[in-house]
Amino acid sequence: MRFFRLPEGWTRRKAYALLGALLAVASPLGLLTLRSLLAREMPTADWVLSEVRADPSLFAYLSLGSFAVFVALGRTLGKRVDALAEASITDPLTRLYNRRHLNARIVEELARVGRSGAPLAVLLLDVDHLKGINDSFGHEGGDGALLAVAETLRRACRRTDLPARYGGDELAVLLPYTTAEQGLQVAERIRACLRGVSKGLPFPVTVSIGVADVTLAGSRSVEALFEAADGALYAAKRAGRDRAVLAAGVNA
Fold first, then answer.
1. Is 169 an active-site residue?
2. Which residue in the list 169, 213, 230, 242 is annotated as catalytic?
């Protein structure tokens, strides 16, 4: 399902409430139109004023009542549509963005890179030994490890970054206006934060991270960017895991 794009900072709850307020204006106008037709009078400004003055309590009740009802309905409907829109781009377990939303945002950011030449980096994370955690502690243990990493990303990433679940035990972070070297600093901050977040778990949780940017990828394409990050991720795994590695094999 596609949702129309709202101005930045707006929610559908707010937009639908405003639409409800505008629709509420139609109630007194509708009554005036009906009276005009029945009386066979042209609805001039003087005629409208005379009608309102003849029965002010009715028009006040109709206006205020319609306003309250339509605004309330708009807010309720908008809240539900907001929730549906959020669910369509959110991973149900980690509550991070899902791969679908990540891919859409990467396309947008790469288009911006093409226009402005600003840097763009991506982190690809893999939870170390997740299969072993599942085998030893069950899927609840594996889910706990993923949730710890997700919470770490929420804490360690900047407001401009976009963390997402890429699939299975892999997560990704889109880093606008960021070079690979700056992305490596973000990766190290994530690793340090994860040590604190996962302290309460009965098993250690670490991640391997591949870092790439458009320059290292050598192409402004989604495929090239993720291939570079994926190559760095596998280099981190081969080097012993629990580390961040730049694309092209430059270790952190």
1. yes
2. 169
